[in-house]
Each structure stands twice: as structure tokens, then as C-alpha cells.
Amino acid sequence: MPYEYKYEGVFEDITELGNAFAGGTGITGRIEASKKLNKNPPKDITPFNKELVNLINQNKDKKIKVYDIGGAAGIDFFMVYPHLKQPQNIEWEVYELDEIWLAYNSFLYFIDKPICIKPISRFSISKKEDALKIVYSRGTIQYFKDPNLFLKGCGNADYIFLGDMNASSSIPTFLTIQKGVNSCWFFNLDELTKILEDQKFNIKAMEGCAFHDMSNFKEKYQLDKFRHLICKKK
Q1: Is residue 20 predicted with pLDDT exceeding 70?
Q2: Residue 23: what pLDDT?
Q3: 13 and 176 Cβ atoms separated by less than 8 Å
């Protein structure tokens, strides 16, 4: 059987590729993963999520609202929640595709913890919200039709946490096809940080784990590692 690469092709226009995540595959598996974490919380968490936990615990006496973009059945919530000092002060809202959010709600609705799920079409951050506002997204932004437009809609957040980003200063911004998903963005890190800096955020970049094999791409498109971005409002 021939080797199958995870990504294939370089494109400039998303209209050539259609919508990512059409049909919302993998829902059952994501719900089962969250169920397991809810019953058996992890003792250790990733360095990226440790940054989130530390921020929340440093502000434990404040009301905190997390906007979890593309968080499925709340898998990151269930990893973070056991490590919070004052979990009663947090509101965690998951935002998912309009056509699949109710499937995840069939699980989250019955969880006796401060988490709920809403359709992504209802996502907004009010400037008047009396809380520390954190936008959190791990491995999701690259599947938006217009990631830049979405990020510009996060200007009222106090922090933005972007994990598992297909981003590096050594590659251009481009579109590709991801097997089993469809369209997927790769980002030039400098261009991405410029968008966030224009909205008055300071950015801290962290290296993640090694990226997938991209030897089928020209060298200038090959990504070495995932990147995490932690953005704080100036």
C-alpha cells in the first residue's frame, strides 16, 4: 500500500477547495474522549495548557470567561478544570459548527460543571462583559475560511490562546488539502502576529511538537513544528 501524506497541494483561493470539516466527522470519538477525562482527570497537562491554568489561577478571585473555539465536547476544559484553584469563578463556553454543536450538547448538557456549548454563529465578545475574557483555540483557526477576519473579531478579548498552529516565520501563508478534512491554512508567523499586534496584543510564541511529514512539498512550504501563540492585550 503506497504511503499517504497528511497534506497535499498548494492553493491560493479557498473557493477551489470548499468547506473544511463538512459533516463534522469524529463526533462520537470526541465525546468519548471527554467522558474519559471527566471521569479520570489527567495529573499532567501540556506546557501550553499550563500557561492557561497559571493565568486563571493568578486571577482566581475574578470572574473569568473562556471562549473555546472549536472545542468539540470540551476536551481541553476537562484537562484544565481539575487544576484550577477557584473553578467556581469560571465560565467556559465552547463554540462549534452550527450543524454539529447540538450533537456535543447531548453530552455537555448533563455535565454538572461550568461548561456549555453554543453555535459558532453566536460567537461574540462584548466590551461590556465584566470578566477576564480569554479566547482559546487549539488546532482550529487554520480551518476557518477567513482566519484573519475571525481574529479581528476577537479584539475585545483580554487574552487569546492559539494552540497547535500551522505557523512559522520560514514559510509563506498558503492553503492546502488535509486528508479527511479538506481545506487547511498554513501561516507565515510574522504575518499572523502582525494581525494580532494591530489589535493591540503582545504576543508570546512557543514551539510545539514536531509537525507531520511534508516531504512531498517544496522546502519553502515545509513546516518543522507546531506553534502556540499567547496574546495579551496591551
Answers
A1: no
A2: 46
A3: no
User: What are the start-end ranges of the H helices in the chain?
Assistant: 27-39, 47-58, 75-80, 101-108, 147-152, 189-197
DSSP state of 70: T
* Residue showing cell 512557543: 206
pLDDT > 90: percent of the chain = 71
Record the pTM: 0.93
φ/ψ region of 107 (left if φ > 0, alpha if ψ in -120 to 50, else beta) reads alpha
Give the bridge partners for 183, in sequence order.
177
Q: Which residue bears the cell 453555535?
A: 119
Per-residue cell: 134: 480569554
What whole-number distance in Å separates Cα of residue 92 and Cα of residue 155? 19
Q: Give the pLDDT of residue 128.
A: 87
DSSP 233: E
Q: Closest Cα partner for 184 from 217, 208, 206, 157? A: 217
What confidence tier does 2 reach under pLDDT thresholds 50, 70, 90? low
The answer to whether the CB of 154 falls within 8 A of the CB of 175 is no
Assigned CATH class of 25-167+192-212+225-233: alpha beta
